[in-house]
Amino acid sequence: MKTDPVPIKNIRNFSIVAHIDHGKSTLADRLMERTGAITERQMKEQLLDDMDLERERGITIKASSVTMYYTHQGTQYMLNLIDTPGHVDFHYEVSRSLAACEGALLVVDASQGVEAQTVANTYLAVESGCEILGVINKIDLPAAQPDRVIEETEHIIGITAEECFPISAKTGQGVNELLEAIITKLPAPEDKSDKPTAALIYDSHADEYRGVIVYVRVFEGKLTKRQKISFMSSGKTYLITELGKFTPYATPVEEIGTGEVGYVIANIKKLADVTIGDTITDFTDPTDKPLPGYQPPMQMVFSDFYPGGTTDYPKLRAAFEKLALNDSSFSFTPQNSPALGFGFRCGFLGLLHMEIVQERLERENDVDVLQTAPTVSYEIVTTDGKAKRIDSPSELPDMQKIDEIREPIVKLEIITTAESIGGVMKLADDRRCKLIKTEYLSPTRVMMEYKAPLAEIVYDFYDQLKGISHGYATMDYEFLSFEKDKLVKIDFLVNGTPVDALSLIVHRSKAEQRGRRLLIKLRRAIPRHQFEIPLQVCIGGKIIARETIKSYRKDVTAKLYGGDVTRKMKLLKKQKEGKKRMKSIGMVNIPQEAFMSILDTSED
Description:
globular, eight-stranded antiparallel beta sheet, 32 strands, single chain, alpha+beta, Alpha-Beta Plaits
């Protein structure tokens, strides 16, 4: 493969964005195959998804980049592609990737049409100033309706039929025409090669042997091997030991010029030393002002992790530290609970992100964890007028000191079939969502926009939505603000001890009913012990309900064969005293299901 220096006017930087499962990674595979970046022998599905978990679930979690060379009419072009995730939780990865590009390919499934995240990702691409090409994928499917989907794309997103390219990423049909369009319709980077070095860090990951590998897009000047560089936000300086590009495997190069994408290795020891969105510049001839960076990721879902049966605290800590090396949007802080001991409070972008972190913990680090029910963060205003964010109901101060509790509100977009509108509206109404507008995308599909409390939609809302719409509905949400409402804290006492990890913040109108229902679920989830366990629920210090888990009854008189009844009475009295003593010092074993039952909103 010939890789001569490519003039800036022949470089194209683009991302592939789409709703989850519309074929981004498969399209990336086909483009690499057609440009000769990989041979048929090297080819495997989802080549850029190198995490086992990504390949198993068939989703992209981390954005990854590849440099391809393509000859068009005798001229060689450099195509830098960044494959991005489609799931709502990884919105942040998409925004970072788009900032490094001039163009975007918006992939839409020819059988399913425009979905909620298609719309959200289009807004992201437009905000980043990217030129967008529509790609109507999966035209080889029997259910494909490319003409209807092109019309829908034009109506909802505003991409004209001339800018939409029907393809099949699986069979390769139409991919050559798409490659021609990338070259002719997407803009080249601006030529700023005469200016001082300015490169944007759009991602990074830690390598066990080589330190931190930084992914960069050079906007001005160039980066060369052995160059002394400085990071503008931290002011730290490093010497570049290796530069390279992913073609798709890491290939060292001597320099990365203006408009190009690649990686930098410079003996950086810790991932914390690298800020995503920072600008790299030359130490001796720095640029005047940094490149526009990113908003830091906002963690919306929090959960406590405690060491499980075979794992101790230091092992769990080491596993979290290793995981945080390659995931800048995940955070953890030490936490102590009277009932569960020492653990960590972890912050995530959303529920899928949390699920993936938990699975990676168990797989890659062989740890056993006990995880509490996820909660969202709230904002409280104390009586002295100070606002403060809390990530757990246990952090809530005494209600006398609180002026108001504000919950996170999101803009929720649901795209569904016309016949399931009634069921979707009922579900949204039950979850305190307010309808803003309804728009018909076609005679059979409708988009509904809501203002919704994040706490109400974060756990099982998506599953319920899929059930109501027979799998056709899709949703996307975006954080708007914190808004005050009538919210109260529910506390649970197990054997007289408050269990912070079970606490909840709920709306006053549902508090009592929810507390009683959850107490019954807890009673079913906690196994019987040798002693009786009282379970209580209280709101603002007032106990509103109680359930009791009966103790095992051991037959201590089984060994007696007849004889005086006083012997029997003596043994029963001894057992009674033993149970009383055991109850006063007995630790209740609370299983994982008990914490998860708190989330279950079903009525049974």
